[in-house]
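Summary: Need help interpreting a holo structure output

Steps to reproduce:
1. Submit the protein chain below together with the SMILES for flavin-adenine dinucleotide.
2. Request a joint structure prediction with the ligand placed.
3. Inspect the structure token block that comes back.

Expected: a single structure record containing both the chain and the bound molecule.
Actual: see attached output.

Input attached:
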Amino acid sequence: MSTVSTVNGGISFWYASEGTPPPREPLPGDSTADVCIVGGGYTGLWTAYYLKKAVPFLNITVLEAKFCGYGASGRNGGWLYNGIAGRDRYARLHGHDAAVRLQQAMNATVGEVIRVAGEEDIDADIHHGGVLEVARTPAQLARLKDLHSVEIAFGETDRVLRGARETAEHIRVSGAVGSSWTPHGARLHPAKLVKGLADAVEALGVTLHESTPVTEIKPKHAVTPYGTVRAPYVLRCTEGFTAGLKGHRRTWLPMNSSMIVTEPLSEALWDTIGWDGRETLGDTAHAYMYAQRTADNRIAIGGRGIPYRYGSATDNDGRTQPATVEALRDLLVHFFPTTARTRIDHAWSGVLGVPRDWCATVTLDRSTGLGWAGGYVGSGVATANLAARTLRDLIQQDSGQAGPTELTTLPWVDHKVRRWEPEPFRWLGVHTLYAAYRTADRREATSSRPTTDPLAKAADRIAGRH
Ligand SMILES: Cc1cc2nc3c(=O)[nH]c(=O)nc-3n(C[C@H](O)[C@H](O)[C@H](O)COP(=O)(O)OP(=O)(O)OC[C@H]3O[C@@H](n4cnc5c(N)ncnc54)[C@H](O)[C@@H]3O)c2cc1C
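--- attached output ---
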């Protein structure tokens, strides 16, 4: 089946199925707030939510360039799971026990998002089926086993390793030689979550201004074309779009990720696949894939595509390259050969924020009142919630309303990293990196050796990932 009839862009399939929300008013002119939050994705909205819940009289303003959920929060793969970018580096920098505390906080975050969604009546199609990662080559299997032991060492004793036959009892992925399953994950509908969250935050009394791009953030000021919001605390929650802010071109690299979604699959087709547990599904390739079985029985599957646009440019309302759509469709059919004639309804892309050392961070600079959270790489659905609760605690601590908490002492707080290289080195570096990963994946697919291809190891080292 070709992809000629596939809708490309339009933000994401999640919005095509849900509709974009009615717009909120832009900032009408200069104003003041106790806390000004720049960016209306999960990070900004969760931060507004927890701050307002903790201190109901706080005057909080969220400034959003387009509409709440326009970014990755309305486009992602819907894996609400306990992974956090940089944990292993934090273990090296701060010790194993500190990283275990970070991991435990992430484990609890999955339940926290589900709890609040229930409490606030946000129906985000959440299904708590865990995370299933499959291996399809001997090298992937060796990495999967390593991953399995590392996660157990970080306290995930409820993780299960499965062989080929046992994996097939759960899901029939072509060529799967094993899998690892953890209960610490859930499938969700990203746009339903972010829309529900924006409504919940507004109902609490937070002011949301949409169509309001912030051009510059400076201490106690968020500057927009319509006026400036002055606030003792200004929080940057712009993730993959951060490079568009004055002075931040090289702070976090906007990395693309693209997705496709199939038409709803027939019962007969599902019988060939299984996947009754509706786990989120991933693999251990270097250019990894991620997928979910949606509430309306489609397969949504994503991967890297063209990883990065020159000069830190971002996509045009989610449009992705036709070659990426074809590549993702091929991947789908490799995984599930019975989908060869299945229609691909929609394709889209979005940007993630990638710091130079691939470590997520949350920071409040006490001397300026400027804060930020992000750099989640591909794991921000749950992490944004942990970041938000941490920003709440950091602000409460700074304003003398509370002391340090368990969250403010986690090792990702106040982590500093150098900026990315200028162009053309940034573009060349990222493209070379992903070309190396794709070559390594191809070589591993035809090799019987259970070892990671040296090209991928070298790429990891050069990229600063390990
Ligand atoms: C295709 C894709 C798939 C993904 N899949 C997963 C997954 O399955 N699981 C997972 O854990 N993570 C996933 N991620 C990552 C995850 O979605 C993000 O880490 C998370 O949504 C980040 O939330 P955020 O609020 O920090 O950023 P965003 O959601 O990107 O929000 C930033 C907001 O800031 C606004 N903004 C930007 N610049 C300005 C400005 N100057 N002024 C005002 N507003 C501005 C934007 O319009 C946007 O709404 C995926 C990401 C993508 C792109």
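--- end attachment ---

Reviewer comment: The first strand starts at residue 7 and ends at 8. The mean pLDDT is 94.
Status: needs-info
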